[in-house]
Amino acid sequence: MNERLRVGFFLALLAPVALFAAEPGVTVYVGTYTDGTSRGIYRTVLDLATGTASAPVLAGEAKNPSFLALHPGGRFLYAVSEVDDFGGAKSGAVLAFAVDAATGDLKLFNQQPSQGGAPCHLVVDKTGKNVLVANYSGGNVALLRIAADGRLEPPSVVRAHEGSGPNTARQQKPHAHGIYLDAAERFVFSPDLGADRVFVYRFDAAKGTLEPNGAAALEPGSGPRHLAFHPSGRFAYVINELTNTITRFAYDAGKGHLARIDNVSSLPQGFEGTSYTAEIEVSRDGRFLYGSNRGHDSLVVFRVNPTDGGLTLAGHVPVGGNWPRHFTIEPSGRALLAAHQRGGTVGFFKLDAQTGMPAPIGKTVAVDKPACLLPVPR
To answer: Cα separation of 58 and 106, whole Å?
Structure first.
C-alpha cells in the first residue's frame, strides 16, 4: 500500500470517531445590568464537547435587560428593561428583539411599558401569543399579547398583589419577583418577596386572560423569590431569599393549588455569614434540585425523592464567582451555566449524570454584571 492510500485508509478509520465526538454549540445570551460597562445583551457560544466558550460580544443594546425569554418559534427574544421610569411613567418596559438567524445578533423592533416599576422576570407561553411579566417595585404582574409579527401589544391585564411581611427593610409592600406557568399552562404563579405568598392565576392563552386563583402562604419573613416545578407535575419548590430556605409544595394541577409541606436550608450547617438565595431549578430527569447562594457563593444540590418530592442534601459546590444571581441548565441537561453578578463572569459546569453534582469545565468568560443566562441550541 503506498503512502497516500495508507494515510487515506487511516483517516477513514478516524472519521466516524470524530463525527461521533462532535457536539453542536449552544448560543448563550447574557442579560445584564447596564449601570457599569455593560451595554445590553451579550452572546457567547459554548462548545459542549470541550467546555470552552467564545469571547462574549454585544448582541443587542438595551438598558438593564436583566431577564430574557425566547419565543417558541425562535425568531424573537423578549427582555425586561428593569427601570422605574419608562416613557415618563413609573414603569419599566418589555422589549422585543428580532433574532438574526445567521449571526445570533438581536435587533430591537418594539417595546411596551410593563405597567409596574423594575420588571425583573418574564415568560412566554408555548403558543407564542403572550408575555407575562413580574414587576418588582410595582408589586404586580402584567400580560402583554404578542402579534403575529412578534410585536408586543400594550399590557391588556394587570394584577396587583397585596400584603407585606415582618422584614421592614424588604417587605414593606408587595414585590413580585417571578412569574411561571405550569406544564399544562392553565395556571400562572408569581412568588412575591414582599407579601410572603405565591399568587396564583387562571390563564387562557387563546383569550389572553389572567384571573385570580388564590395564593399559597409561606412562613412570615421568607421572602419567596423564584419557583421550579418537578417534571412529574406533582411538586413545586420555592426558593426564599430572606431565610435561605427552599419550600416544598404538593401541586394539584387540576385546581392550580399549592399545599405547603416543609422547608430545607440552602446553606451548610454552621454557616454564619450573610447570604441570600437567588435561582432554583430541577434537573430534566427530576432526580436533582439546585439552588444558588449569593454570599456563600455556592450551588446547593439535593437529591429528589421520586415518591414524595422530598429533598436530601447531596452537597455544596463553589460556584466559581461572586454573587450567583442566576444559573440555568442548558437544553441537553448535561451542563449548568452560572452568572456571577458581582464577579463579572459567567461560569460553566458539567453535570454528573449519576450523582447530579456540577464540576467546572473550561474557563469563565467576562461580562459585567450578568443577571440572566438564556442558552439556545445552534
So the answer is: 9
286 three-state secondary structure:
coil
How is residue 58 written as a grid cell?
454585544
Which of 11-20, 25-34, 127-136 is predicted least confidently? 11-20
pLDDT digits (tens, 9 = 90+) for 236-265: 999 999 999 999 999 999 999 999 999 999
- Contact of 211 with 219, CB cutoff 8 Å: no
Q: Over 105-146, what HEC string results? A: CEEEEEEEECCCCCEEEEEECCCCCEEEEEECCCCEEEEEEE
* Contact (Cβ atoms closer than 8 angstroms) between residue 340 and residue 334: no
d(CA 236, CA 310): 11
Is pLDDT at 22 greater than 70 in this prediction? no
Strand 365-366 relative to strand 52-53, pairing: unpaired
Query: Does 93 score more than 80 pLDDT?
Result: yes
Residue 162 cell numbers, joined: 397585596
Angle at 45 between CA 44 and CA 47, to 5 degrees: 145
Question: Which grid coordinates belong to 66?
Answer: 436583566
Structural contact between residues 30 and 40, judged by C-beta atoms closer than 8 angstroms:
no
Q: Is 63 exposed, middle or buried (0-12, 13-18, 19+ CB in 10 A)?
A: middle
Which value, to the nearest 10 degrees, does the dihedral of the CA atoms of residues 341, 229, 285, 77 take? -50
Q: DSSP label at 219? A: -
Q: How many Cβ atoms from other residues are within 10 Å of residue 126's Cβ? A: 12
Over residues 73-92, mean pLDDT: 97
pLDDT grade, residue 23 (50/70/90)? low
Joined together, the cell numbers standing for residue 321 give 464567582
Is residue 351 within 8 Å of 327, Cβ to Cβ? no
* Grid cell at residue 261: 409541606
In percent, the amount of the chain with pLDDT more than 90 equals 93
